[in-house]
Amino acid sequence: MSVNVPRCEEPASAADDAEGIARARAGTGASPRSGESPGEDGEFDGQAEMPVVVCPMNTHGIADQFEGRLAPNGSAYYWSTGGGLDFHETDAGTDVDYLFRRCVTVTPLQYDLTDYRTLERLAARMGSNEKAL
């Protein structure tokens, strides 16, 4: 299970946070620093209720940001500087969308991406000796 909880501290500015949410949803840049939105009056309520939503995960690629650095021994390494919710796009009804709307998200996950129906057909077609599951 993937469980995500929106950050709860007050953003630097409700206007900045709302602008970041709009950019992130449009896929035009960095997402908001905290993933939550201000209230209808533009004020942030750190005590507002956070509903729990069961939803699919956002599958759009994350806009990774890295900074090149040098270790004390002189070897190069890269440090992640992204905000964690910086996606190229955000689909409605996904975990990232709900996090922006101040919801706790629960997403059941699976690891194996194998298409077993196609695996069986392909194995039969190619005369594979291996028995598919």
Query: Count of helical segments?
Result: 3
Number of strands: 5
Report the mean per-residue pLDDT as an integer: 76
Would you identify the regions where 5 or more consecutive residues have pLDDT less than 50? 27-40
* Range of helix content: 10-25%
In angstroms, what is the radius of gyration?
Answer: 21 Å
Instruction: Order the strands across the largest sheet as they lie in space.
Output: 1-5-2
Tell me the overall shape.
flat
Strand content: 15-25%
**Biggest sheet layout:** 3 strands, mixed
Number of domains: 1
Structural class, from secondary structure content?
alpha+beta
- Termini gap: 24 Å
Order of helices and strands: EHEEEHEH
List keywords for this structure.
single chain; 133 residues; alpha+beta; three-stranded mixed beta sheet; two-stranded antiparallel sheet; 5 strands
Structure description:
The chain has 133 residues and is an alpha+beta fold. It has one domain. The protein contains three helices and five strands, in the order βαβββαβα. The strands form two sheets. A three-stranded mixed beta sheet has the order 1-5-2. Strands 3-4 form a two-stranded antiparallel ribbon. The longest helix has 13 residues, at 14-26. The protein is flat.
List the helices and strands and how they pair.
Blueprint: E1 2-4, H1 14-26, E2 52-54, E3 66-70, E4 76-80, H2 95-100, E5 104-107, H3 116-126
Parallel strand pairs: 2-5
Antiparallel strand pairs: 1-5, 3-4
Short description:
The chain is built from 3 helices and 5 strands.
